[in-house]
């Protein structure tokens, strides 16, 4: 691939760049900064040296004023039209950190938005100060977002998808989200929070999962439980639903039983507080049954 630096000064400039990239299927964005101006053509996206080939890194970590946040499979209120990006943005804003909720933003629809259930959006915002990928991961801990886009070499795809033999189901793939301010205020110091202690039922669920899967699925389910436990007031129900929808895949592939997943999710919701147990059980059962693709 070829690396090109492009300057952006504020949210409006970023919106112009994103509009242009909608029609550029062979381009994408990365957070990293090219290390060597003489090594930008026909190179690989490397943050660390390749142990096998000896190739040197091409991208370095850098703090950025802009942030792209991946929101995938976030449940939408009944009746929300997925073609109305502004309405979808208003419905999912509550899952972001509080500082984002009054600030202007840009939302772009990913390829599966409007095709698969839920909001599948990328939320772009301008920050009050340059912020590193590690800071972003700490700041968004407990939010139902994909941390991979905070990495220096992770491609952030920006082009509109191509639909062969059919029209794009969305009338527009970019929308401006109004706000009472143009920037998101970043906390002065962002520290990694300590994980919340697991309840006995949650621990049992994790033990079963580790025994069945031996690795990555256990970590995935542990991360889902942490999202539920870390939910703030007003966010607990949507985050529990999102976690249950995601856990459906682990139940389907046999990594954890339906009952163990349900009990662990419900007990994580109880740890967060502010949610009725019966409602939590219904929410968990619904998500585990249907999954992110609406499976029966």
Give a structural overview.
The protein is of the alpha+beta class and 296 residues long. The chain has two domains: 11-23 and 63-177, no CATH class; 200-290, no CATH class. The protein is built from eight helices and nine strands. Strands 7-4-6-5-9 form a five-stranded antiparallel sheet, with helices on both faces. The protein has a two-stranded antiparallel ribbon with strand order 1-8. Strands 2-3 form a two-stranded antiparallel sheet. Helix 6 packs antiparallel against helix 7. The chain is globular and about 60 Å long.
User: What is the number of beta strands?
Assistant: 9
Q: Quickly give the structural class.
A: alpha+beta
Oligomer: single chain
The residue ranges in which pLDDT falls below 50 over 5 or more consecutive positions are 192-215
Strand content: 5-15%
The overall number of domains is 2
Q: What is the CA-CA span between the terminal residues?
A: 41 Å
**Share in helix:** 25-40%
Q: For the CA atoms, what is the radius of gyration?
A: 20 Å
Main sheet makeup: 5 strands, antiparallel
Order of helices and strands: HEEEEHEEHEEEHHHHH
Strand order of the main beta sheet, please?
7-4-6-5-9
Work out the helix count.
8
> Could you report the average pLDDT, rounded to the nearest whole number?
84
Name the shape in a single word: globular
């Amino acid at each position: 691939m070829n690396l090109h630096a492009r300057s952006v000064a504020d949210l409006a400039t970023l919106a112009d760049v994103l509009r242009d990239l909608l029609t550029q299927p062979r381009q994408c964005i990365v957070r990293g900064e090219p290390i060597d101006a003489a090594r930008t053509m026909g190179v690989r996206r490397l943050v660390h040296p390749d142990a096998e080939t000896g190739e040197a890194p091409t991208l370095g970590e850098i703090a950025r004023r802009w942030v792209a946040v991946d929101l995938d499979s976030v449940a939408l209120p009944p009746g929300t039209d997925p073609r109305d990006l502004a309405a979808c943005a208003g419905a999912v804003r509550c899952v972001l950190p509080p500082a984002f909720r009054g600030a202007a933003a840009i939302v772009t629809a990913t390829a599966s938005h409007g095709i698969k259930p839920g909001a599948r959006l990328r939320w772009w915002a301008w920050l009050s100060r340059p912020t590193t990928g590690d800071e972003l991961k700490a700041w968004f801990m407990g939010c139902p977002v994909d941390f991979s886009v905070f990495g220096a070499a992770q491609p952030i795809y920006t082009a509109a998808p191509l639909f062969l033999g059919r029209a794009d189901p969305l009338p527009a793939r970019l929308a401006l989200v109004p706000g009472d301010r143009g920037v998101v205020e970043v906390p002065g110091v962002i520290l990694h929070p300590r994980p919340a202690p697991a309840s006995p039922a949650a621990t049992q669920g994790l033990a079963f999962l580790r025994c069945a899967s031996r690795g990555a699925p256990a970590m995935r389910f542990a991360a889902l439980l942490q999202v539920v436990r870390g939910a703030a007031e007003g966010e607990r129900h949507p985050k529990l639903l999102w976690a249950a929808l995601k856990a459906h895949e682990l139940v389907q592939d046999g990594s954890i039983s339906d009952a163990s997943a349900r009990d662990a999710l419900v007990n994580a919701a109880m740890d967060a507080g502010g949610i009725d147990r019966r409602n939590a059980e219904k929410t968990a059962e619904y998500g585990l049954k249907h999954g992110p693709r609406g499976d029966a």
